[in-house]
Design brief:
mainly beta; six-stranded parallel beta sheet
């Protein structure tokens, strides 16, 4: 949204397809906030840029952005990417494939969880061409658990935030990080 705040949005069973930029763009400006937003069983694919962009350019809050069983496929950029100050982002299940990056988390993100997802080739699409998941420096409180990360380009996980609060557990293709 570019005007005003959004509180408690629930989007389900929708297609955001063939967009000239982003399939879903959460990008408040001014002092606006976007909080408590759920996206269940959505397709954000075949966009020229990112399937989903969560970018806080405002002085407000972007928090509580949750995806359940998303299909983030066939995008020109990332399946999902973040920018600015964002907290409490989760992806549970779904497929993230045939993008440049599956997920690209930039500095400013705190509290991200990807669980039970297929990030790579599968569902009839190729792998993410560069990397499955990129965790930028300054990203904190990261949980990657029970994912299948096999079959991505040059890297399954690029972890530039090593040493922060991270837990990687039971992911095919990725080394465990944090207490097991």
């Amino acid at each position: 949204t570019d005007a005003g705040s959004v509180f408690s949005l629930w989007v389900h069973h929708c297609f955001f397809d063939n967009s000239s930029q982003n399939g879903i763009r959460i990008s408040p400006s001014g002092n606006a906030s976007v909080v408590r937003s759920r996206f269940d069983n959505i397709w954000a694919g075949s966009s020229t840029a990112d399937g989903v962009l969560v970018f806080n350019s405002s002085s407000g809050v972007v928090s509580g952005i949750h995806f359940t069983s998303p299909h983030l496929l066939l995008n020109g950029g990332s399946g999902i990417s973040t920018g600015g100050t964002v907290s409490d982002l989760s992806i549970i299940g779904g497929e993230i494939g045939q993008n440049q990056f599956g997920a690209y988390f930039n500095s400013g993100l705190s509290g991200v969880r990807i669980t039970d997802a297929r990030v790579g080739n599968g569902s009839g699409v190729a792998a993410n061409s560069i990397a499955g998941i990129v965790i930028g420096s300054g990203v904190d409180y990261v949980i990657l658990a029970n994912n299948d990360l096999r079959g991505n380009g040059s890297a399954l996980v690029v972890n530039q935030g090593a040493g922060s609060n991270q837990l990687f557990k039971n992911n095919f293709g990725a080394t465990a990080v944090g207490p097991q």
